Amino acid sequence: MLRIGWFSTGRGEGSQKLLRAAVDAIQSGAVNAEIAFVFSNRERGQFEATDLFFDQIAGYGIPLVTLADGRFRRENAGEVARKDQPLPAWRTAYDARVVELLQPYAYDLGVLAGYMLISTEPLLAWRPLLNLHPAAPHGPAGTWQDVAWHLIAKGAQHSGVRTHLSTAALDAGPIVTYCTYPIRGGSIDLLWRAVDGRDLDAIRQADGEALPLFHEIRRRGAAHEVPLLVETLRAFGDDRIRIEGDRVMTGDTKIVGGYDLTPEIESLLSRPVTA
Question: How far apart are CA 163 and CA 179, in angstroms?
Fold first, then answer.
């Protein structure tokens, strides 16, 4: 049985939804796994949304381990981490402490599901960490907002969601699984026509994230994220895929470019919703 270590900052409903989907799949027998613990870089009392997430974890009876990165930074007189700058030294010390806290919990695979810290060597070297990213193979790095604007700028035909091994290089680790889907055809073409011939900077300034095309691209991506994560865990639990070092394997064969779960995801999404 696959033992999963679940890492999440627990910022809101998205974190709750991902964990709920994984637990439901495990409890139904669809995924041959168990969640050994949930780790969060927040502690109870910091944020209401995170406290609700912690209540959810307690309801499942899953062990919760926490270490507030902000408190750790202050206690170690560390500098605030800044975007596009090297991580300060305290971040490596923080991850080393996380590894110490997680020693009592044996697990095979770490899952970063809404975990908002970039992992450093102590954590990366201990167990493989799987990261969910809202872009297709060869798609852009960054947040889902970055991805959506990139797709609009390029006039893309397709997008996707992938999981990859977390490495020191942001969103650049070996791809493990993925699915793709169209962002052209049907009603969305009307939204594309509304931006034809417009400068992207002007669009962002005038409409921002209220742009209907931006919302529709995000909606399609979000609809694929939970199914991809669940089907990825199913593939690991069924031993269809495994991690050996930095290699993704199926049987004796190394998977290059990721394991395509598009047919499975589209089958799931096409099923009628039952009450």
Answer: 9
What pLDDT, in 10s, does the model give residues 62-115? 999 999 999 999 999 999 988 778 889 999 999 999 999 999 998 999 999 989
d(CA 210, CA 203): 10
Segment 230-253, tens digit of pLDDT = 999 999 999 999 999 889 999 999
β strands within 224-266, DSSP E: 242-244, 247-250, 253-254, 259-260
Tokens of 9: 């900052």
Angstrom CA distances, 169 to 102, 119, 257, stand at 24, 10, 17
* Separation between Cα atoms, residue 258 and residue 130, nearest integer Å: 13
C-alpha separations of 124 from 56, 84, 127, 168, 179 in Å: 27, 20, 6, 8, 25
| Structure-derived torsion over alpha carbons of residues 229, 232, 238, 241, reported in degrees to the nearest 10 | -160
**Do the strands 242-244 and 247-250 form a parallel or antiparallel pair, or are they unpaired?**
antiparallel
Q: Contact at 8 Å (CB) between 220 and 192?
A: no
